[in-house]
Amino acid sequence: MGNIGRHHADYLIAGKVPRITLTGVCSTSPGKLDAYKEKGLTVFSDGFQMIGSGAFDAVLVATPHYQHTTLGIAALDSGVHLMCEKPISAHKADAERLITAHRRNSATVFAGMFQLRVESRYLRLQRLIQSGELGTIVRMNWIITDWFRTEAYYASGGWRATWKEEGGGVLLNQCLHNLDVVAWLLGMPTRIRGFCQLGRYHSIEVEDNVTATLEWANGATGVFVTSTGETPGTNRLEIAGTRGRAVLENNRLTFVRNEADMFEWSRTATVGFSKPDTWTCELPIEIHPAPHAALMNNFADAILDGTPLIAPGSEGIHSVELANTMLYSSLSGQTINLPLDAAAYEARLHELIAASKHVKEVRAVSSEDFARSFNR
Ligand SMILES: NC(=O)c1ccc[n+]([C@@H]2O[C@H](COP(=O)([O-])OP(=O)(O)OC[C@H]3O[C@@H](n4cnc5c(N)ncnc54)[C@H](O)[C@@H]3O)[C@@H](O)[C@H]2O)c1
Question: Which domains does the chain have, with CATH numbers?
């Protein structure tokens, strides 16, 4: 029942997900439970005890990252359906453990809270790609540097921005949503080189400023830039294909369509500087009013009717692998070929935890402006 736990509880209690009834909540911070007790909900101070109570059909895990794996496995092994907040785990080896637990409990539904997948701007991009309108994808650039966070944000939780309890920084927490979109829309790259600065803008030990280059099997390339220290920052996603270029920026999606495939044009043109004619299309975008509730409605439909999940939990491993690889590449000063060696990365993370000397400031911080953190 931290920031996002309370957000989920609010819309569930308000009846925004008609097929789910919130019956109980849990927090290791007892003060957060009183308001829910007063509303008649069962409260727990230990997540494992809550799962073991058998008092409900499904659980939503919205704790610090490492507990996503441990509580998630406990839920699945108890036959409880699981909606797991992002990231599904702090690192790839843990994500594999969670997915294995789901495989051995295949009657359970395991979903991930990747709410950007219901936003029309990304769904329209997906349609442009899948319909072939964009042609063969050759390049992706995403500058997503408007995940600005203050020192107060980092001080608001002892687990935040620590190797031991969060497992990473901007890659694993804020822009993990964007990494999910990259993998979902474009598939997994085959090579990554990351440049991560640790505590560049804040008094933290993990990365808060990142530039990474990516390469896909078909030769497509990409650059991914993110930060929590820059403001105003930028959010510009550009995807270039042989049939045109799509740009998503300032909540406008513009598709400039090549009248002919650019490879074909290059091969067949008889002069040196000609280009295919273009048409410019503005695609309509609506910001989803309740993206988290939309995923929870889908979760309920998956449990009750077998409806396919919008964000299957097992797909959450991709964003974790991208985040881990960018960091691992940076720490080792090398380009990394995917799939990432999960055991090697886990060992490196344990070294970072063991070597940590950072003394973290923790203080009570109001979360009144939390909802402003959504929607990139
Ligand atoms: N999908 C989204 O839009 C979104 C937004 C914010 C955060 N998140 C994710 O949600 C998770 C929580 O983030 P937050 O900002 O709410 O953090 P937070 O620090 O505000 O809250 C974490 C809560 O977890 C509780 N907790 C810790 N260990 C527990 C355990 N073993 N059992 C039960 N409760 C336990 C703590 O008491 C605390 O209330 C993170 O994984 C974060 O990445 C997702």
Answer: 3-116+290-311 (3.40.50.720), 119-288+318-355 (3.30.360.10)
